[in-house]
Amino acid sequence: MLLSWHDRLLLAITPEQLVLRHAKAGWRPQFADIALTVDTAATPGWQALLPQLEQLLHSRQWQRPVLSVVLSNRLARYQLLPWSDELHGAAEWLALARHSYRQVFGELAAGWRYRLSGSGYGRPVLACAIDEALLAGLQGICERLAIRLQLVQPYLMVAFNLWRKQLNVQDGGLLLAEPGLLSLASFRQGSWQSLLFETLPAGQPGAASLALHRMLLQLEQAQLPSELATFTPGHAIAPTRPSPRLRALQLPDDAGRPGAALAACYGMAASGGGR
């Protein structure tokens, strides 16, 4: 491992909590974790988080800090765009995404930033939208505190990139649990097939299993994945009918890798951890 003269800051953001993982500069990463639960009753949504985040980052002395951020899937909005031979280039696909989101969300979609991820020619394109004001707020904090903002990604993409080689993208799926939300992405013949999301009420044992059952019932029989790779810290998933095989994913030991470290950071947030 190369010597790093930068403190790496890994930040997981949920609507109610910030989890900060600090990898100190040096030959080997030495992690220190901080969890901060924010009262969002007066100011619902992510707006209450930014002042607390700035105070948290300002309260410490960092060495040439670099920040990477993973956002809860509750702070992102996803759509699958069907392939079209009539579209040419990124600008036309981006225009289609904006139009599709406005049809669903109305004028709210005008204030979002969009990112697209394709699986190849002829296959659906995954679109993700994040509130532009949230991204601008993070950038503003980093500029004021002389922190380099390296990466902002939603949890679904962090998890997909981390475990991509372990996923059955021909006939499988990825199941993720986090505070308040269960996310299911299914794949078919190497491309995205469907995206489903279900609310997870707090303090209800078995809620994740019931939510998964509702998700699977929404899929046609031909769309049911044969296997689900699952990362659901804090939630036991019981087999359901219809029932794909369930295979639990584990965080890799090499937490020095950015993807693994980000997923580990969000894993703490997903289990209410960091303490």
Notes on the protein architecture:
It is a single chain. The protein is of the alpha/beta class and 275 residues long. The chain has a domain at 160-248: 2-Layer Sandwich (Nucleotidyltransferase, domain 5). The protein is 27% helix and 31% strand. It has 6 helices and 13 strands. The chain has helices at residues 49-58, 90-105, 132-144, 155-163, 207-218, 258-270; strands at 8-13, 17-23, 31-37, 66-71, 76-81, 112-118, 125-131, 148-154, 172-178, 181-188, 191-199, 227-231, 245-248. The strands form 3 sheets. Strands 3-2-1-4-8 form a 5-stranded mixed β-sheet, sandwiched between helices. A 5-stranded mixed β-sheet has the order 11-10-9-12-13, sandwiched between helices. Strands 5-7-6 form a 3-stranded antiparallel β-sheet. A hairpin with a 2-residue loop joins strand 10 and strand 11 (191-199). Helix 4 (155-163) packs across helix 6. The longest helix is centred in the middle third of the chain and has 16 residues, at 90-105. The mean pLDDT is 84.
* Structure summary, number of beta strands: 13
CATH fold descriptor of the domain at 160-248? Nucleotidyltransferase, domain 5
Helix proportion of residues, in percent?
Answer: 25-40%
Label the overall shape. Answer: globular
CATH architecture of the domain at 160-248: 2-Layer Sandwich
Radius of gyration: 19 Å
Output the CATH homologous superfamily of the domain at 160-248: ATPase, nucleotide binding domain
Q: Give the end-to-end Cα distance, rounded to a whole number of Å.
A: 27 Å
Biggest sheet details: 5 strands, mixed
